[in-house]
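Hello,

Our lab assistant flagged a job as stuck in the queue for most of the afternoon. It eventually completed. Since we weren't sure the result was trustworthy after the delay, we are filing this so someone can double-check. Below is the sequence as submitted and the structure that was eventually returned. Let us know if re-running is recommended.
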Amino acid sequence: MTRATRPAQVEDRLRRTPAHSLPEAVEEALKGCLPAVSAVRILLADYHLNVLVPLDGQDEPEPVRIAGTLAGRAFVSRKPTLNPVAGRGAAPDGCEVCVPVTARGERLGVLAVTTGDPAPEDLLPDLAEVAEIIGCALKVAWNHTDRYERARRLRRLTLAAEIQWQLLPGHGCAGEEFSLAGHLEPAYAIGGDNFDWSTEQDHLTLTVTNGSGTGIQAALLTSLAVGALRNARRSGADVAEQAALAGDMVHARYRGTEFTETLVMRVNLADGVVSAVDAGSPHILLMRGTTMIPIELEHQMPLGMFADTRYQIQQFKIESGDRLIIVSDGLYTAPTSPDGVFGTTALQQVARRTRMLDAAEVPLAVIAELMEHLGGQDLADDAVALCLDWKQPATDSSSPAHPAETQESSDAPG
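-- returned structure --
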């Protein structure tokens, strides 16, 4: 069998396999086209992104920690890792290969393969392509079975968390111009915070929402707000219209007694111009090289506080190599000591420490820093962290160093 046909054979098999049977189909297909392969496992990342859970049919499979393991290194680095399998003599009998499973830039888990070949480097291109095929197949199958959703939760979610996780677009995505990742904690008992994104041919839309209240009531409020924002966005509305229409829907339901603090942003992929509506409390930090620049936008009314609220669009520009870190109020104002809150200073410090990390790791690092400040205590409020790395080559060398200086406002239709 030629090398070109191996991934194609796996892909063909997955297309003809029921959604709940992908792991078994992958194992059978790989063993059929790669005779040296003796074992195949797919591992999915849990909600906390702390462990990888095997999809091996066991009722309670033993999770594999991401930190300090072969599979974990492949997941974090998004690169294959190899570990020789000890033999009876001096030479290894085979090799364990772990390949990241991704879908359009989102890390889902790891494909772990054991082969009798102690030097399987020639198999890596095939396995990397197969892992991408698995990632895409999993994303399609996810809505047709509970197997994969059930596997990645280590304990039962609260109903509020169940609602919120169904709203989230994923943990990350990537394109030629950007890499994007987000994380939400506490993962198993979240209430009203949310992030969302959508990519189009010429722009990227981001939202970060901090819903008022706790528990199921907060989750229902945020669900209404996010659904209204998506409805407006999919109808072609700009960010000011999205905020206005979503605010009207929330006010119509709650009459101002409940509201959501929301940041809505649209990034033009051609030139990095960001159009934003800051309707509440999410905070933006821009990292340009080693310089930290808090993006100060005009705080406008939260969505749903008043009827017929008009919103203004403000603009700033990001350049190639810039990193945006966006956090919700639950993280920014979390008390870290009797004398203060997490705030700008701590956010800038952790941003500096993580500037060499991949965008996918930054939200986790920011929230881990907060947990360390809290001494390991549980979060009193939901916390969202989102990271956007901008890779689009600069097309305008005259863009100002301080993006806040380029802010412009325009009235949105009422």
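-- support follow-up --
The delay was a queue issue, not a problem with the job. The result is valid. Residues 397-401, 404-414 have pLDDT under 50 and may be disordered. The domain at 5-150 is CATH 3.30.450.40 (Beta-Lactamase).
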